[in-house]
Known about the structure:
The protein is an alpha+beta fold. The protein has 7 helices and 6 strands; from the N terminus they run αβαβββαααββαα. The strands form 3 sheets. A two-stranded antiparallel sheet has the order 1-2. Strands 3-4 form a two-stranded antiparallel sheet. A two-stranded antiparallel ribbon has the order 5-6.
Amino acid sequence: MFTTRLKSALAVSLFAVSSLSFAADIDMNADANDLAIKGYDPVSYYTMSAPKMGSADYTATYKGGIYRFSNEENRDMFNKNPAKYAPQYGGYCAFGVAMEKKFDTDPLAWKIVDGKLYLNLNKDVQKKWLTDVPGYLAQSDDNWQDIRKVPAAEL
């Protein structure tokens, strides 16, 4: 009886610890289920020049966020070099980071600059960001180091 209760308690403890290890990092924009970029395939931005919805059949984890892919090939490409394909600033709005904020993003408001994927809050915000991409990226790069580990609600 005692052994059974001990095994049960141990199993619950291990489950709790393993669940925490998969939680998205604080510098990762993911939903309550740790799904990154709302389920869009990050590799498709590069290979198709357009965002494509990923499938739960093809997934990979990076920095605690779960990424979905439209096919096995894209998932394998991502797994070989996730930093190349994952959106910058943990998937937070590039313009927002320039303003020292962590805003959610619309996966359809995107741009690849110098081989890196950037997302924006929405297409209206993206229009503003596009007026000075180099300037906003310089601000964002500086700001990201200071805000990356700060919860979005505290900014």
